[in-house]
Design goal:
Blueprint lengths: L8 H33 L11 E7 L5 H13 L4 E5 L14 E5 L3 H8 L4 E6 L15 E7 L19 E3 L6 H11 L12 H15 L11 E4 L8 H5 L1 H8 L4 E4 L3 H6 L1 H10 L6 E3 L6 H6 L2 E4 L4 H9 L3 E4 L18 H9 E4 L7 H9 L5 H11 L6 H20 L1
Parallel strand pairs: 1-2, 1-4, 2-3, 4-5, 5-6, 7-8, 7-10, 8-9, 10-11, 11-12
Length: 416
Amino acid sequence: MIIINYIDPGTGSMLFTIFIGIVTSLLFLWKKLVIKLKFMLYGGRAEATEERYPYVIFSENKRYWNVFRSVCREFEKREIPVEYLTESEDDPAFSENFKYVHCRFIGENNKAYARLNLLNADVLLSTTPGLDVYQWKRSQNVGWYVHIFHTIDEACVYRMFGMDYYDAILLTGAFQEKYIRKLEQLRGLPSKELPVVGSTYMDELKEKLEQAQAKGQTGKEDKTKTVLLAPSWGESSIFARYGEKILRALTATGYQIIVRPHPQSVTSEKEILEPLQKEFPDSEQLSWNYDNNNFEVLRKADVLISDFSGVVFDYALAFGKPVIYADTSFDPAPYDAAWIEEPLWRFEVLKEFGTLLTEDDFPNMKGLIDKLLKSDQKKDAIDRVRAESWQYIGESAARTVDYMVKKRQDLLAERA
């Protein structure tokens, strides 16, 4: 008789997390034992061989360089050493001529987390959610973990418990605080520090746009209108809900269509993307875009169609162009938003500066787009949302480094 044991994906993930936690703990204990032995053998001089970094930036992918670039340059300008640890061997950071920013490739996935879990540092900055939830564990030798957003949102549309175990979260606008405090209250978590610093990512977009405009670059090679379809991923996304229907409606407009799937969709939703790419291959009218940086496609597009993705804020607030958001009946179940009873901020403000798209609108997609392109009635709403959600425009990198430097000073004073 053959017995087959089946472990469902959720249980498997949990067992793997427990395994990683045990291995990490054993590695940490072994490392501490080695340090103590060195200390005994060499008369107390071994502690000096264990380098402690004052500041660390961790990037899980090269696509987040647009978040960290200005922060690294601010450290460089102040001549403050910082370790930039990345999971991308071809991270754009390596092409910079830094003296004080030390860029290091630390491997991918579990190899990177094994390094991070034993890290020795005062202050660490990262965009990566899920600290102390899955493979990435808090190191006992890191004094302070700081989260920085890679987009503008209400801070509760990460996967469950995404930011719970950070010590501080750098806000793009004061509106985000109430959502974080609500989650802390519901989960019995200690209060995090929540300084408002603005958005390094949005400042980067603004700077690039101004530079392009100064050179007279429009991003348009012809007068044909271009529609950018850039959805999020997951069960509530455009592709999961509408699939080929929305692509068929868009190609029927006769406009140029750029389709830019979410990066996570590329790895997690191949069963959705591959059939769509086969049915709607690259052509003179339609192209699939996977560029590491989305600046060029945002600049080229005349209108954006998305869902609950944060790209709607990149496009509307930085470029001031019209947004169409699809009604995908957002399901908050996998996200921190499931704990929030009130309507999410993004859907409330989207009603102000965006135009709703339902499946009933698909037959008249061209008419909807044409009407939107001829109107500028959403400008005041865009200005109001920008003021609320993107504070300290142009100052975010300096304010981020200010916070990290001050926090390290506080930690050193506590240890003295």
